[in-house]
Amino acid sequence: MNNYLVRLEQVKSRFKKAENRWTRLDAKRALLEEQLAEKISELDSYFETIDIYEKARVLLQQSAEYAREQAKQQIETLVTNALQYVFGPLFSFQIELEEHGNKAVAEFYVVSEYEGVKVKTRPQDSRGGGVVDIVTLALRVALIETVQPRREGPLLLDEPGKHVSGDYVLYLYEFLKSLSTMFNRQIIMITHNYHLAQSGDLAYEVSIRDGVSEVTKIDNT
Description:
The chain is about 55% helix and about 20% strand. By secondary structure, it is of the alpha+beta class. The chain has a domain at about 1-150. It is elongated.
């Protein structure tokens, strides 16, 4: 009987240790899955950014010389305005065109000024992910407005400026409003940023409860 009780206690002890180990491993698995989802999201964002850059390059490459210079100036102006709207007057956007054979190759740069010194970097190497977000957003708009014939319809945005820090969200909102007014386009966006959601003329919050989506109108008055 005593041996039975001893073995029972040993089994309970081993079970408890196994249960604790399983709990730790399950928590580690959940953390790894969360990190994997974040990295996949970052990778998707990276590929989207690369896609926008390539489309802008193709537009410049395929344009005739005069049209190319006009498109270059328009894109530089729009992206510079976007950067300055959000991050201040010490930022600008530059496109450098070089001829390789019979082809024009475009390279994109963000120029910023610190203590009187100008620094020129590629957008993806600039300060924080927020700069890349703004450049990508402005390039997307520039492509839409430059392509002929002009495409009508609203501007659809998914998490615009998701890497822009909270200090600059208000400026991002002002830039989006100016885009809507300048190009006479409705902007429809999905965002987790509460301040951006409140900035819209009409906003809805979607939440999931017990597997059912609930839609609530946000009062932006």
